[in-house]
């Protein structure tokens, strides 16, 4: 049965005379036309913005955000024109990486992994999601950022928030009491992304941890040495590693009059001092966390202090703090740590900073955070921090939370905030206009004449079988000029050219792309010559 449906424009009741209903229809169409024209104009302006940013060589994150906005406008316009609404973009807080960006990332990973291996670390992997109860209650106020997965009628699961809690679960589950491991993998946080500052909802962490019962501060010092080696090797600018100790913080809160029940929440507030002023931190302590103004002022006398060994000595003589058992233990260990860091030759890059709190609940001892420094003008004595790129600390109680008998495995580790580092390195490459190679191809197999496809296939197969990274163009009879241009465009350093004469003489003409130098090489010696010229062992 067919059913007729009458269309009634918005703003009409259907009982008006026909000419009024017609005017209503035309008015509705005019409004729709105006809205479509407005969207088209917004789309044009957004396209201009994207083009301008690309011309100005803005950071990839800024361009990506504006391109996403452009795609949203296109989808809206398509919906207005009766086309299906579908936004082709990555989810909020995520991004794609093109070959050039991936080449930069691989270089960073190589430096980090080689440092971890140099210090004797093994590698492990864990699932990308864990039981929800595994992650619950381990991250303090940040627990709200955990991604919970939809219940499919089975286990309650969450995406991992970091690599430390899964590592502790792994140790407890496998009854491991001694390991030095690294783990590089993606983690997930339901945060408000700031992609221009390298802050995402999906991102990599690079973790190095030492688990086991050892003498005080020796593994802790090695973690800081590893962090120093990585940041120096990446050459991303001047940096400073801030250190503190949870025991010193807890002792400080106690002598200042903070109730035990508020230690962790006040700790999270103090941790904001690198982003906001002391006045803002104090207001949060008093207004939101319920501390008295006098207690907050006493905390302020301590948390604004930062120095090296001299400050540790000063606090060991402090009449109040030195009488607190926890604080004294932390200060004595901190003094020992600085002695080891001096022996490692890195103490000049380390600052004992009482404002460093790190909001995660599982830290029990030394904590640290690396920040990049931006040089200021001559009128300012100290450089200014432009962002944290790594952090870590000691967490002696975390494994025991998973062990049925509560057996503890002392642990200390460091986590490299890799996305921030990638953003900085990408900006450096863009600014320098450095050409980034996206492949490792050593040689292109080329032909000087037609009808030599079979010979090219034979030669490239010989090179592949000998471990040479080689390419050829996927055409039967490519022009020599096109083959040479391909090498120029992709950065391939050598060309192995065969022609009828070379085949008769049993040689291959090896061309150096950069200098255009050409030399005839016996076919049986070609592999060794390519390895020698590309420094491959």
UniProtKB/TrEMBL annotation:
Gene3D superfamilies the UniProt entry points to: Anticodon-binding domain (3.40.50.800), Bira Bifunctional Protein, Domain 2 (3.30.930.10), S15/NS1, RNA-binding (1.10.287.10)
SMART domains, per database record: WHEP-TRS
EC number: 6.1.1.21
Catalysed reactions, semicolon-separated: tRNA(His) + L-histidine + ATP = L-histidyl-tRNA(His) + AMP + diphosphate + H(+)
Keywords: Aminoacyl-tRNA synthetase, ATP-binding, Cytoplasm, Ligase, Nucleotide-binding, Protein biosynthesis
Binding site for L-histidine: 162-164, 189, 205, 209, 358, 362-363
InterPro entries linked: aa-tRNA-synth_II, aa-tRNA-synth_II/BPL/LPL, Anticodon-bd, Anticodon-bd_dom_sf, His-tRNA-ligase, HisRS-like_core, HisRS/HisZ, HisRS_anticodon
Record flagged with keyword Ligase: yes
Residues covered by the Aminoacyl-transfer RNA synthetases class-II family profile domain: 93-425
CDD domains: HisRS-like_core, HisRS_anticodon
GO MF term set: ATP binding; histidine-tRNA ligase activity; identical protein binding; RNA binding
Similarity remark: Belongs to the class-II aminoacyl-tRNA synthetase family.
Protein name: histidine--tRNA ligase
Organism: Pelusios castaneus
Organism classification: Eukaryota, Metazoa, Chordata, Craniata, Vertebrata
């Amino acid at each position: 049965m067919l059913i007729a449906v009458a269309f009634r424009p918005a703003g009409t009741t259907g009982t008006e005379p026909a000419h009024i209903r017609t005017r209503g229809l035309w008015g509705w169409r005019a409004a729709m036309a105006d809205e479509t024209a407005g969207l088209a104009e917004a789309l044009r302006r957004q396209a201009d913005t994207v083009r301008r940013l690309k011309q100005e060589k803005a950071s990839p994150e800024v361009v990506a955000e504006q391109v996403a906005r452009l795609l949203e406008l296109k989808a809206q316009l398509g919906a207005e024109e009766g086309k299906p609404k579908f936004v082709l973009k990555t989810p909020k807080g995520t991004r794609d990486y093109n070959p050039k960006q991936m080449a930069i990332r691989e270089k960073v990973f190589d430096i980090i992994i080689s440092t971890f291996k140099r210090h004797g670390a093994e590698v492990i992997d864990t699932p990308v999601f864990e039981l929800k109860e595994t992650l619950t209650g381990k991250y303090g106020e940040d627990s709200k950022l955990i991604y919970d997965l939809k219940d499919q009628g089975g286990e309650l699961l969450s995406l991992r928030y970091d690599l430390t809690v899964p590592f502790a679960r792994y140790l407890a589950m496998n009854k491991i009491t001694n390991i030095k491991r690294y783990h590089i993998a993606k983690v997930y946080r339901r945060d408000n992304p700031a992609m221009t500052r390298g802050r995402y909802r999906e991102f990599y962490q690079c973790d190095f941890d030492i688990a086991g019962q050892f003498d005080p501060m020796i593994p802790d010092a090695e973690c800081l040495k590893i962090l120093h080696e990585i940041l120096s090797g990446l050459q991303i600018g001047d940096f400073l590693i801030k250190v503190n100790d949870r025991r010193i913080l807890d002792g400080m809160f106690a002598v200042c009059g903070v109730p035990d029940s508020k230690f962790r929440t006040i700790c999270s507030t103090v941790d904001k001092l690198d982003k906001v002023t002391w006045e803002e931190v104090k207001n949060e302590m008093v207004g939101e966390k319920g501390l008295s103004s006098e207690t907050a002022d006493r905390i302020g006398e301590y948390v604004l202090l930062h120095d090296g060994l001299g400050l540790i000595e000063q606090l060991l003589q402090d009449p109040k703090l030195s009488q607190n058992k926890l604080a004294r233990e932390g200060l004595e260990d901190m003094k020992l740590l600085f002695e080891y860091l001096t022996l490692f030759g890195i103490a000049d890059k380390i600052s004992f900073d009482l404002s460093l709190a790190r909001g995660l609940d599982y830290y029990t001892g030394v904590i640290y955070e690396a920040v990049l420094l931006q040089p200021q003008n001559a009128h300012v004595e100290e450089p200014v921090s432009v962002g944290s790129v790594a952090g870590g600390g000691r967490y002696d109680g975390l494994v025991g939370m998973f062990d049925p008998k509560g057996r503890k495995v002392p642990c200390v580790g460091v986590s490299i905030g890799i996305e921030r580092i990638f953003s900085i390195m990408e900006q450096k490459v863009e600014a320098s206009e450095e050409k980034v190679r996206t492949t490792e191809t050593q040689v292109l197999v080329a032909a000087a004449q037609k009808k030599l496809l079979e010979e090219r296939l034979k030669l490239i197969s010989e090179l592949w079988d000998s471990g040479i990274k080689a390419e050829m163009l996927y055409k039967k009879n490519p022009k020599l000029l096109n083959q040479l241009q391909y090498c120029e465009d992709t950065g391939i350093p050598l060309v192995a050219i065969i022609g009828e004469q070379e085949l008769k003489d049993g040689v291959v003409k090896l061309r150096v792309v950069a200098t255009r130098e050409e030399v005839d090489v016996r076919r049986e010696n070609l592999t060794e010559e390519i390895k020698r010229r590309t420094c491959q062992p």
